[in-house]
Automatic annotation (TrEMBL):
InterPro entries with a match to the protein in the record: Niban-like, Niban_1/2/3_dom, PH-like_dom_sf, PH_domain
Region (Disordered): 583-603, 649-743
Family: Belongs to the Niban family.
Ranges annotated as biased composition (Polar residues): 730-743
Pfam families for the chain: Niban2 (PF26086), PH_Niban2 (PF26089)
Transmembrane segments: none
PROSITE patterns, sorted: PH_DOMAIN
Domain PH: 61-185
Protein's recorded name: NIBL1 protein
């Protein structure tokens, strides 16, 4: 009865949060659509980027691969796994390297959005102890996790399951840490910026919803795609109550209670995710259905809508602006320069490091090409250079500069929960600028190669093009950084101002609703117009602060008046051409046979960390690693994890067979003999899990096995009967139920 009530309560609470959010989303969708059409019609000025932008940076590439040890929670054993990071930055764990090369089923797929990468067990235990207040192991008792080496890597999430890995050396740990952090950084940035309607509508709806709950300031869990972000939003509200309800009912030692709580939280998160995905998809479909009519109205009545909005803004401005200006003058203006300086120093150091790494790599390539064979070696080195921006280890020195970002007392004053939002954003800009510089360099060099005569010409041409690209990089990086500083200052100060003004202004906003014509109510919102007025009250000071920093040439920022016009008028036309394949054009190697093992030909950005399967030290149980995996005993608790998982699945998905069907998110495997996609283009098809108890024939050697989809949002578990591994007993990580979820 308790579990039934819990599941029913969770579904009800989740539904209530989602209904309120979807209302906010529908409102913001109309506003975002109007802004998008207006931008399209009116356009917007701004400095033109000098560097080219690559459209599909990592097509047909694997980022990283190598062996590591993973801790299997259910049977408390460490297992060797071969980990592959494909172009979508999912972590894909195989039984071993041979399973990967034979295109067999992976053990687990992990989407790392929302995770933190920890490098010590003590860090992890501190977070675990704080997740369930009042449950802390006594001194001298065994902790929840023991690592057999001194080099652990742990993926921790506030709601989802945790993943435990370890390496044999500190060098391996550093490399894998850089890779994991790159995966987290990429997956966190899961909301597409290409959309001018859906993305701003979603992020504004999230902000409006949280502000309605008196939650202002930055939010650390705006991570992943829309469904993941919404699931985090729901869990943020549900978790405190769940902790108080379930925590006291857990039995056993402190470590077992902590372990049980982590698994229960993960099960609830999965249920919330499924419900969230269904309701959000329905809201999206409804908005898309109404979009053509709304867009037609906007285009027809654009002038009237703009006039109506300006009239509303003038009335709100007269009411709000005097109060906002006083608040800015007393509480914001004195701190803008301090915040800006704190942001500029590490960010500019990071972009300077990007420039230095790019310069060094091209210079080294130039020397090596000249010394080792001219054009014959050019293809080999350019193939490596073309993916420099996506090399986690080489880019790490750039990303690490942002670790110095500290707002100190300003963080508490402006209610900034963490600086991680700004660090990650700057790091993404660094990676993009590096790739733009590399792509511009290779495009210009490719244009010149056919005209060159000998090594000397090649050397001089590379040096000349490098200097041109560095000038373009300096200009673009200045533009990107100034924009980043302005956005960060607004992101810090606007929520603070809204919170300060709320007691005197928010209750009075309702009276302005009557100023909006009913026909335009979908495109003009009082709350959004009010925020625009507040933004205007501080924008002048922010623009002035950034301008002064540029005038003083602080951190190599260019003045706004310095504009590069048509320095390469035909360059952007070159960027629209067919992607360059250096190895095919200049390597001189014969075309490989189609029968050649596709996996072995996969292009990889970073060399393999550890090719041979390692063995953990004998003292920590070498023999145990060689034993077959056995089912682990369920935690000793009246609300056992397995029981809770089953009850949650039944409540949210119907009976057990239906759960297996609905949690599977792709069609069945292709039939034996079917064409298998190239390994580098990671297939999107995922084999469906068979119903529990069904007889599963062993697939033939030619059967295509599952690979990660670009849209994976987390862990997947291999179905039973796949040729990758024998069916696992219940209770192990490789669940014999073969249930796949989007976590």
């Amino acid at each position: 009865p308790c579990l039934t009530w819990l599941c029913s309560s969770l579904a009800e609470r989740t539904g209530a949060v989602l209904r309120e959010f979807c209302r906010c989303y529908r409102e913001q969708f109309g506003v975002a659509l109007f802004n998008s059409v207006r931008y399209e019609i009116e356009g917007a000025g701004g400095p033109q980027a000098q560097l080219l932008h690559r459209k599909v940076p990592l097509e047909d590439h694997v980022i990283y691969s190598g062996n590591l040890f993973q801790y299997i929670e259910e049977n408390k054993k460490w297992r060797n796994r071969f980990c592959v990071v494909p172009h979508n930055y999912g972590l894909v764990l195989y039984e071993n390297k041979l399973a990967y090369e034979r295109d067999l089923q992976p053990r687990v797929l992990i989407n790392s959005a929302g995770y933190k990468v920890l490098t010590s067990v003590d860090q992890y235990l501190e977070l675990v102890n704080s997740s369930l207040p009042g449950v802390t192991p006594k001194s001298g008792h065994s902790p929840i996790l023991k690592c057999p080496t001194d080099f652990p890597l742990i993926l921790w999430h506030p709601y989802a399951r945790h993943y435990y890995f370890c390496m044999m050396t500190g060098k391996e740990q550093e490399k894998w840490r850089a890779v994991f952090q790159d995966c987290v950084r990429h997956c966190n940035n899961g909301i597409s910026e290409d959309s001018r309607v859906e993305a701003p509508a979603f992020t504004d709806a999230i902000r409006m919803y949280r502000q309605s709950k008196e939650q202002y300031g930055t939010w650390d869990m705006l991570c992943g795609n829309e469904t993941q972000v919404l699931s985090n939003l729901v869990m943020e509200e549900l978790l405190p109550e769940l902790r108080n309800t379930i925590g006291p009912r857990l039995k056993g030692k402190a470590q077992e209670r902590q372990r049980t709580w982590i698994q229960i939280s993960d099960a609830i998160y999965r249920m919330v995710y499924e419900q969230t995905k269904a309701q959000y998809d329905a809201a999206m479909a409804k908005c898309e259905e109404e979009r053509p009519q709304m867009e037609s109205t906007i285009r027809t009545d654009m002038d009237q809508i703009i006039t109506s909005k300006e009239h509303l803004a003038s009335k709100i401005r007269a009411f709000v602006l005097p109060k906002a200006e006083i608040c800015v003058r007393n509480h914001v203006q004195p701190y803008i320069s301090s915040i800006l300086e704190a942001l500029m120093t590490p960010t500019s150091q990071g972009f300077a490091e990007v420039r230095e790494v790019f310069f060094k790599e091209v210079t080294d390539m130039n020397m090596n090409v000249v010394n080792e064979g001219g054009l014959e070696k050019l293809a080999e080195y350019m193939e490596k250079l073309s993916h420099l921006a996506f090399h986690p280890v080489k880019m790490q020195s750039c990303y690490e500069k942002m670790d110095q970002l500290k707002l100190e007392g300003l963080q508490q004053r402006f209610d900034v929960s963490s600086t991680s939002v700004f660090k990650q954003r700057a790091q993404i800009h660094m990676r993009q600028q590096m790739d733009d510089a590399v792509y511009t360099f290779e495009t210009l060099l490719h244009q010149e190669v056919g005209k060159l005569q000998g090594k000397d010409d090649l050397c001089k041409s590379i040096q000349r093009i490098l200097e041109r690209v560095l000038k373009k990089y300096d200009y673009d990086s200045s533009t990107v950084r100034k924009k980043f500083f302005r956005e960060a200052l607004l992101q810090i100060t606007i929520p603070f101002l809204l919170k300060k003004l709320a007691p005197t202004c928010k209750a009075e906003l309702a009276k302005f609703q009557e100023l909006i014509f009913e026909d335009f109510a979908n495109f003009i919102l009082v709350e959004n117009t009010y925020e625009e007025v507040v933004l205007q009250s501080v924008m002048k000071d922010i623009m002035q602060a950034v301008k002064e920093a540029a005038v003083q040439r602080k951190h190599n920022l260019y003045r706004d008046s310095m504009v590069m016009h048509n320095s390469d008028p035909n360059l952007h036309l070159l960027g629209e051409g067919i992607p360059i394949d250096w190895s095919e054009e200049y390597s001189g190697q014969p075309e490989p046979s189609p029968a050649t093992d596709k996996r072995r030909r996969a292009k990889q950005v970073v060399s393999v960390i550890q090719d041979d399967e390692g063995v953990l030290p004998y003292e920590v149980g070498t023999e145990a690693l060689r034993q077959p995996e056995e089912p682990g005993a369920p935690p000793s608790s009246p609300d056992g994890v397995q029981e809770i998982r089953e009850a949650l699945a039944k409540e949210s998905l119907g009976d057990g067979s239906e759960a297996g069907e609905r949690l599977t998110n792709a069609p069945t495997s292709p039939k034996p003999g079917a064409d298998v996609p190239s390994e580098a283009k990671v297939p999107h098809a995922t084999p469906a899990s068979p119903a529990p108890g069904a007889n599963v024939p062993s697939p033939s050697a030619g059967t295509a096995c599952h690979q990660p989809s670009d849209k994976e949002t987390g862990e997947e578990v291999a179905p039973p009967g796949s040729e990758c591994s024998p069916p696992q007993p219940l209770g192990t990580t490789e669940s014999s139920e073969g249930v796949q979820t989007e976590f």
